[in-house]
Amino acid sequence: MRRPRRAGYLNEINPIVNRLVPNGTETIDSPFWFTLDPESELVTCIYGEGCDVDPGDYMRWELADDFLEIADVVHNRRGVLTLHEATDGQPERSRIYLVVMAPNGMAQELLVALRTSTGESWGITRLNRARGDPMFSNPEISFMAAAASLISEGVRRGLLVGEATEPEQPEAPGLVVLTLDGEVESQSLTAAEWFSRLPDDNGRQDGVPTCVLTAATAALRDAVRGKVGGSSTARVPMRDGGWAAVQGVVMSTDRDSRVTVIIQPVHPDRLAPLLMSIYGLMWNGSVK
Question: Which pLDDT does position 266 carry in this prediction?
Fold first, then answer.
């Protein structure tokens, strides 16, 4: 199975970013790169040399309703946001800071939306610094904001190359059932085959790809906020060049409820707007 082009591209970007905007701790020496479906804004994969993100932890982070979530940065006008800015200089107000960052030596965080000039977010990068390190400066933040569109263009072109090299191959849907804590309770026989075709990021939990967990997270968050059943869908580029729709569904948020995730080929009507975006074209429901 060939290495995803996006992973190689982002690994090439790492030393450049690190040289111009130093980041890292004793145990973390790389930015965290999260690729997104630009329509649903769900995470499809996590990349990074030495990145040891547990998708189960990520799932819980996004449910925490904390100060610095991916959606906050995606919808931020500048497309950049620091934890200190989000907490008015009091990062200890953040639950994630107390539970995850501080115990792992992280004292600062800078999130950058990888947004193209047309406004689509193809990813997020998280940069961290240790205790005693200088604060992220305004020039560093401005540099990352300016570089974001160039980096996102590389991610978009990586998707374009992958889409052009292999045809889609329809398969029987895969089904995964998770507890509300993100633990896999059961899965269909076809799920493992789908897992092998989904992005091979270095943050899988029990063999389950990040995009499956984030779809479950978004569905649960939708249910919590609406007090009824929730759902979410992300379109994910597969390792063989095709595309998958990863859909999370939860009927309620009762203690005994479960989150169901269905993985299946993307219907052409759902894929067309995304491919138009990848090719740098506008989409208004019809091709002109």
Answer: 79
